[in-house]
Amino acid sequence: MGTDKAWVEINDRTMIEHVLVAATKPVAASLSIIIHPANPNTARYRRLAGQWDARLLDDLHDHQGPLGGIHTSLKACGEGESALVLACDLPFLTAEFLEFLCREHDARAAQATVPLGCDGRLQPLAAVYDQSCLAAVEERLALQELKVERLFGVVRTERIAFQEFAHLPRARKFFLNINTVEDYRNAGRDEAG
What we know:
The chain is α/β, with parallel strands linked by helices and 193 residues long. The chain has helices spanning 15-24, 42-51, 65-75, 95-108, 134-142, 148-151, 181-192; strands at 9-10, 13-14, 31-35, 54-58, 82-86, 112-115, 126-130, 157-160. The radius of gyration is 16 Å and the shape is globular.
């Protein structure tokens, strides 16, 4: 989109606030925001983190994509903890869905719990990762196998079929992300429907 998507507004709230405040804060014991250390909006992220009692973490990796962010989040976890990893461009997630996902992760005793969208695609950036995944993530990074999906072949992964949470309000919109200007234009319509 040519800009830091976290700060794009949808219905008078930035996308990161939709994810952080509306969806995650009611569910998570603690909040963290991961950014690149050279991000030009660092001061703005720092203010947001302070406002919502979140930690601001520097991404431990440069150009390692989502897997690098997952690694950074797991390094910040204590032993036996899990990280609910969410992309900032998923403004339609709800606390109700995230509560469901966390409950399923705990009940199934998985290392990774990953939902599938209504199209059947894995959603690795709206998933729960146990701290026990750390060694496997580090191995993938060392091998430069950066596709998150490859991690699921080496850790105990529970895939949550869309049908298991399709009954939740607005479930079909949970994984609509904003990657283009056209996505952004359609977001208002998606929010309303």
